[in-house]
Amino acid sequence: MSKPPQALRLVWKKVIPFEHGGFASVSLMENSKRIELVEPTPTATQLLKHPVAIVALLPKDAAVFAAGALSGAAAKTVTAPLDLIKLIMQTHGLRVGHQTANKAIGFIQAFASIGKQEGIKGYWKDNFAQVVRVLPYSAVQLFAYDTYKKLFRGTDGELSLVGRLAAGACAGMTSTFVTYPLDVLRLRLAVDPGYQTMSDVFVKMVKEEGLGSFYRGLGPSLIGIAPYLAVNFCVFDLVKKSLPEKFRNKPEASIVTAFVAASIATLTCYPLDTIRRQMQMRGIVARDGVAGLYRGFVPNALKTLPNSSIKLTIFDGMKRLISTSEIEFQRIMEENRKQSPNASSF
Question: Are 11 and 27 in contact (CB under 8 A)?
């Protein structure tokens, strides 16, 4: 009997059930044999017994995205008082008026004024708005950095120094553009006592200044964040990469490395941050000279260590949790395969 034409060849399939769920589909085509296996999925009982494995049910990209958001929110909440003090020191002249403003307001003075006027709760004034902004900002920033690093890899698969700097700069600009309006709202609410809620700020800005006001100062913001994150991420990666392998993944290594990277980036890029914030508050204040560009530098530097340490430590911990969940999930799958004799006997 002659072979049937290519289009008329028969396909013979056999479906083999697994004891723990799933099935194997075997297809025989002509002289070739194709085996299609659908892995036995873990049961609800197994997942309850090994809850860490539940994380592996999420797409990895989604899990990493969420890890970036949560780590950023936690760091922002802890360092909210220092961030508010920094804003007050940076915009002191604009808040009290040009005629009566001192040349500068000190850290202790700014700290005491918050407690005196608003009490303990004042140090976390509008923290919800900050967290709302940081959730997408941190998630987009960290996720985008990994994405851009893959994009900028050379033909040999390695990431050059320039490519690493470009990845950090692009990640910073992407996350800033997405969340910039929330940053403007938060700033206005923090430094203007006439506003009570974010909705008040939003309505007044739309009526009096138009929608374009939400992106006032975006240019300097992009210019400021691009070099900052380029330097920060690049130094962090390179310093951590230079550490001995046995220390590289320890939380202590992340804390020290983050401190060094953030300090270098802050020192070199802080003046642009001051200019950006004062442009958001209607104009650049040049009356303080070059020293004015570093107003609020001390609290900003003090905030850098806990913020970077908490953010990166939590993020690294969550990534380790994701990796652990994948290992645990695969272990359960392997146990199910071993308990399914048909999987290996066909």
Answer: yes
Cβ partners under 8 Å of residue 222, min gap 6: 173, 176, 177
CA distance 82 to 157: 41
Integer Cα distance of 216 and 221 in angstroms: 9
Q: Convert the pLDDT of each residue in 81-108 to its tens digit.
A: 887 877 777 676 555 555 444 556 777 8
Residue 18 DSSP SS3: coil
Contact 38, 329 (CB under 8 A): no
Three-state SS string across 245-283, please? Answer: HHHHCCHHHHHHHHHHHHHHHHHHHHHHHHHHHHHHCCC
Task: Report the 10 Å Cβ neighbour count for 23.
Answer: 14
> H or E segment at 190?
helix 161-191
Residue 7 one-letter amino acid:
A
The model scores a pTM over 0.90: no
Q: For residues 91, 95, 101 and 102, what is the CA-based torsion angle, rounded to 10 degrees?
A: -40
Whole-angstrom Cα distance, residue 242 to residue 121? 43
